[in-house]
Write a structure and sequence with these properties.
Length: 88
């Protein structure tokens, strides 16, 4: 599964969430919610939520993904780390 790219409005830039400060359960819940929202926007067949959560958690730990708060949608989102806007 490929997560959508993020093209932020410069005035509404996402805010990096320090996921390392979340409990294991809270982080898994946030990642799950982000993935479910992505799947709802796409028609994905054969989606294994548990497997995808595990992959994203590993990606966060490896620095491949970032967890952000999107002020436009007022919700958390997952971004490829290389697509993060510069943080002030």
């Amino acid at each position: 599964m490929k997560l959508d790219s993020f093209d932020p409005d410069p005035d509404q830039s996402p805010v990096l969430i320090p996921w390392q400060h979340l409990s294991t359960e809270a982080l898994a819940g946030v990642v799950e919610a982000c993935l479910v929202a992505q799947v709802a926007d796409q028609n994905v067949e054969g989606f294994d939520l548990k497997r995808e959560v595990t992959k994203v958690l590993a990606g966060l730990d490896a620095g491949d993904w970032a967890l952000v708060y999107d002020p436009v949608t007022e919700s958390p989102a997952l971004l490829p780390a290389d697509e993060l806007p510069a943080q002030p």
